[in-house]
Design goal:
Layout (H helix, E strand, L loop, with lengths): L18 H8 L7 E3 L5 H6 L11 E7 L9 H11 L3 E5 L9 E7 L18 E2 L2 H10 L8 E2 L6
Parallel strand pairs: 1-2
Antiparallel strand pairs: 2-4, 3-4, 5-6
Length: 157
């Protein structure tokens, strides 16, 4: 049930950074999955990736708005072309539940990645407590209450 409070305006100021800037700042060497969920600004995230950073990304999963008659019409084709141009195999689907609403799911995978024998998801029981330096570093970057207690994925190179 929708209630009035769900439609109340709540303006916030925030600092925006390009995707490549975040990758550079964190020193990420590989991105197994880049999941993008940013209402109607998905393409902006992709455009914020410098050419030198694209090879780090193995998969992209995202929702894309492409409602006809609105400024984002045709955006799905633009996203597909951008990802294909970066060497990804791209699949676009329209969820049955949202058919006709101009909302699409995009899955882009590097050729051969799905056959990669390295573990992509941490095995049960391999979590290790985070050290104090890691907790402090994460606390400086993440919203309050978002710092994890353990590192689940490690040494996957």
């Amino acid at each position: 049930m929708l209630v009035k409070k769900d439609f109340e305006y709540d303006g916030r100021l925030c600092t925006l950074r390009r995707t490549s800037s975040v990758i550079a700042e964190t020193g990420v060497r590989r991105i197994d999955l880049l999941k993008i969920d940013l209402q109607r600004a998905e393409l902006d995230v992709l455009r914020g990736i410098d050419p030198v950073r694209w090879p780090l990304i193995r998969q992209v999963a995202m929702g894309v708005h492409g409602e006809a008659g609105l400024p984002m019409a045709g955006r799905v084709d633009t996203v597909r072309a951008l990802l294909s141009g970066q060497g990804f195999d791209v699949q676009v689907t329209e969820p049955k539940m949202l058919a006709g609403n101009g909302r699409f799911m995009v899955q882009a995978v590097r050729p051969g990645y799905s056959d990669d024998p390295r573990p992509v998801v941490a095995a049960h029981g391999n979590a290790e407590p985070l050290d104090a330096a890691a907790i402090t570093g994460l606390a400086e970057r993440l919203p309050a209450g978002s710092v994890p207690d353990v590192e689940i994925m490690s040494n996957l190179d």
